[in-house]
Amino acid sequence: MRKTMKKTIVGLVVAGAALVGASPASAAFESYSPSAKAGSWTQKNDSQVAAKIHKLATKAHADYYRTTDPGSYYTLWNKKATLGSVTYSGVGGRVTDLRTCNWVPDNDDECSRWEIRG
After folding, report:
1. Which residues form the signal peptide (predicted)?
2. Which pick of 7, 79, 88, 94 has the fewest CB atoms within 10 Å?
């Protein structure tokens, strides 16, 4: 009984140390549109963006800046309008700024605030 408990405690300590040592910069960078109808995030060390639909019949886009071209932003559309659908950008320079927008026909899109990693 003691040997099993000792192994469990050692395992928890090792797992905790690994989490403490994880760099926050490697965590996904995410954004949600107003009313959370859509969301976007980065992956592959912030070099790719994904955009997901959270509410049926929603069309949305993720806008983002990359280190390779800081003067202009990129747009990743998800026009599938099906619940749970995800689109992916190509892999490129590190994403530094990200926002998610609900598409509004013939009007200004509803966008989240910019999430900035810098």
Report:
1. 1-27
2. 7
